Every structure is written in structure tokens, then in C-alpha cells.
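Subject: Sanity check before I submit

Could someone independently write out the C-alpha cells for this chain? I want to compare against mine line by line before I put it in a report. The sequence has 592 residues.
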Amino acid sequence: MTRTPIPSARRNDLDWIRVAAFGLLILYHVALVYAPYDWHVHSAHTFGWLHEALLLTNPWRLTLLFLVSGAALRLMTARRTPGRTLRDRAGRLLPPLIFGTLVLVPIQSWIEALDKGGFTGGFMDWLGHEFGPTGLSNGVPVNHLWFIVYIAVYSGVAVALMTRPALMARMEAWLVRATAGWRVLIVPIAWLMVIRIVLFPIFGITNRLTWDGYNHFLSLGAFLFGFLLVRQDSVWAGLERHRRAAALIALTALPIMMAQAAHPGGGAWLGVPRAVVFAIDQWAVMAAILGYGSRYLRRASGPALRYLVDATFTLYLAHQTVLVVAVWFIRPANLPAPLEALTLVGITFGVSLLIYEVVKRIGPIRPLWGLKPLPAPVERTPYARRRRLLIVGMAAPLLALAAVLVGVATYPGFDHARQYLSELGGASAPLPLIFNGGIFIAGLMCMAAGLGFGLAIHGLTGRWIVASLTAVVFILAGVGLSVSSLYPWPDPRHMAINLGLGIQLAPLLLLWGLWSHVDLRRLKIFLFITFVVMAILTVLTKHLVLPGTVNDANVGWWERAYAIILVGWVGVAAFVVERRLKTHAGRHNPED
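---
Independent answer below. Compare away.
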């Protein structure tokens, strides 16, 4: 006896399907690194058999995502007016689209241009090219974010339907009749066959909104199918009832479709037989997934699902940029293909999840990564943001050290005695992006730490002037580090690094700011010693005293000592001040 699905405001089955489909998308993109297609970057290893293997998911994966997205939008509109729905969708989709287009996609495009020999400049030069008159004349590249563009437009179509409830009701009723019984398998397959035969030869798939006719009939059709039928229990009962038949049809169609793709004559008869089998596989797999999901996953909730549902959008935004950068770094190691692929999968998922874990905790940037704003806290944690900024300050020296160590490890014959650290990011370095990328991020972290120190001084002593000066010194130092990494030596703009030397004043400013705080005696001694040692190293390395002590044969070691003290003390001071703030917060409840 077939169980009739229970109406629910929350469709756990669709959440699971959405999460799994996005996970498959990430694996699919890793596979494209090895496939015989013109993707953004490639491994040194290429496998022709992936041309057929990718057909395991290629016909249905994105179409299923559009269907589930349409269903999710309809469930979201239960207590919303069309206007409210439109505002909510714009607030959720537009910030990550703009952020991704301006920040995430250019990283991919720059690496692709370098990899394919079409560009030789730095990242800032590439930004000028992409968003200058020449680049904009060719359109703004969105890469994998085309999916967000389409979802935004299709959401607008759905909201327009919401303003015509009578029309929407008639469309729903017609679709329910058209998909009753066996027709839930036959009618969608017939639709997919027609558009594949008629429109695909004309348009192909471009992922460009203005010329993508086949894709719109496919993806918008799937989106509206989910939007209109998600609440129609009879349709889901039909999918459940015919799930086994759908799975059997899919298993039969798949090898035929693969054989057609592999055989030189697979496109005979104007490609009609191939289009027919493609459409059959496309809907049969989707119907099986939807049917089995509705049958077994409606009530399958829990912490794992809630976590993954929240993380999915951020992972989607981050994953392709992470993957392209990972390929760029890892490929020179010439790893065996299985090990390289596993490494790319691990890095792509791991770093994307790390990005999610970081950004979900930072309220102002959550919308940029597709996350809802944080709810207003019931009770504020004293000094929470200041302490988080100081924790970033603790991590900054560790990141800079890691960038140096990895940079040295990938630079055979690097001479610590004679070479400057900046050369790890220069033209002679095998992998300059490792050092430059690490230093760029460390510079941003230095700016955050400066804000933390400034706010901490004010919180502990109430002194705004010295707090502001301390923050400014750190921010300038961070700007110097980040800018110098964008313009590697010997570019004259690399000398922006000199802004970082102003951090030598920071121990004195901290000492001044915390002087009246009687509980930090050891930190004050440490800050004073740090300032004295840096002053001594400065006069020696500038040859102001004992000329000849620092020379070409040992300048590298002097620079190492200077760099360790220059950035290392920041982590120590940030740790001590953060601990003091925690103690201080136990006695007070300030506005943070």
C-alpha cells in the first residue's frame, strides 16, 4: 500500500537533495580538472574516459537543483506577500552575487589567464583589465555564479506569478492533471525531448542570460515545476509510486547514452536518437531521486542536515575559487593523479568549510557569503568582538611564518644568509603566490589586530587618543604588507612595505595606553624590551652604527631576526591583552 506524503512546511527530503546535489557539483568541478574539456585550469593529467563518465550526473544535476530551488522558494512564500518575497530574495542573492563577481571570480580569471598564457601581470593589473573599458566591453565574467543570476531572474518570474493567483492556480491544476499516474514519468520526458531536439542545436548551453534559449526552457521549466507542484501531494505520491520504474529506466538509459557519446556515429540522424536517450535519462534519474527522497527522507532531520543546509550556499560561492587556487599551487608538485585528485577534493571541501566557519561568526559579512544576518543577541558577550580581533592578531604571525616556511620549502637553493624574504614572492621564486598570498592575508589580519588593540586600550583604560593612534599604526602596517605582496620585488610599488615599519612604534603606544593599568607589569616590560631590541636592529641594519656588521654575506640572517621580532611580539601582546579583556569582562558588562 502506497503511503501518501504528509504535508509539511519543511521538506527535509528536498534539503537533503539540495545538499547532495551541491556536493556532487563540487566533485564534478574537481573532475573537470582532469577532463578533456576547456575548463579554467587543468592538471598535468588528463583522462579521456571522463568524457563519458561525467554523464553520470551531467544531464540532471543542475536541472534538479533548479527544481529544488523553485520548490524551496514556494515553501518560503507561505506567509509572505509577493513584494516581501522579492525583497527577501534580492537581499539573499544580490550581495553574494556582487561580492563574488568583484572578489571571488577575478581570482579564478586571473589564474586562468596566467595559466593559458594570455596575461603576465599581477592581480591588481588584472583587476584593472577586467573592470576597465576593454574588459567590460566583453561583459563582466561571473563564472560559476551564473547559477545565482539565473535563480534571481527565475525568482522574479515566480514572484510575478504570485501576483496572479488565479493564473497560478490554473497552471497548478493543469500540471497536476498532466502528471497524474504514469504521466509523471512520460510528460516531463516528452518536454525534455522536444526542447533537446529543437533548441539545443540552436543555442547549446552558454550560461549567458541573453543567449541561452535551451537552458531557459530547461532550467526555468524545472524551477517552475518545483515552484508550482511542491505542495501537490498527489504528484509526490506518484513520484514515490513510480520510483523503482524511474530508477530502472535510468539504469537502462545511462549505458546507452555513454555509448552514444563514445561512438563516432553517436550523433547520427541529426542527433535525435542521442537527444531522446539524454532526455529519458535526465528525468528518470530526477524522478527516482525525488521519489526515493520523498519516501525515506521527509522526516530525516537532525543537526547534520541543519548544519549542511546553512553551509551549502557559502560552500557554493567559495569552492570554485578554492579549487582553482589549489590546482595552481599543487600542480607543480607532479603528484600521482589519484593522490592529486584526493588532495584537491580535501582542500576544496576543507577550505570551503573553513571559510564558512569563519564568515558565519562575523555578522557584517554574512550576507556577502549567502548567510542570513545574525539575530539580535539577547545578551551581549562583554568585549566579544574586541577579543575576536585580538585572536586574529595572535594568528597573523603564525600565518606569516607558515607562508615563509612553505615558500622556502618550494624554493630549492634559497640562501638564508644572502637572500631577502621578499624574494620568496619575486619572479625567481617557483611558487611566489604561496608567499605573496600568505603575506597579503597576514596584512589584513594585522589591520584587524590593530582595531582589536585600539578597542582593547579604550575598554581597559577609556583613553581614546592613544587607542586611535595604536589602531592607525597597525592598519598602516597591514596596508603596507598587503600592498607589497600585490607588487612583488623589484616593482617599485613593493616599497609600500615601509609602511609596515611603523609598527615599531606600536609597543611604545601600547605601553603608553596601558601604563595606568597596574595588572600588566610583565607585558609592559616585554613591550619596552621589544621596542629597544627593534631600535637596536634598526640602527644596525641601516648602518647608522658599526658599519660593516651587516653585509651581503649575512644580511638575510639579520632580516630574519628583525622580522621575527617585528611580527612575533604582536601575537604575544594580543594573547596577553585578550586574556586581560576576558578577566575585565567578568567585572563589567560594557557595550562592545
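---
OP: Matches mine. For the report I'm noting this point. The two ends are 60 Å apart (CA to CA).
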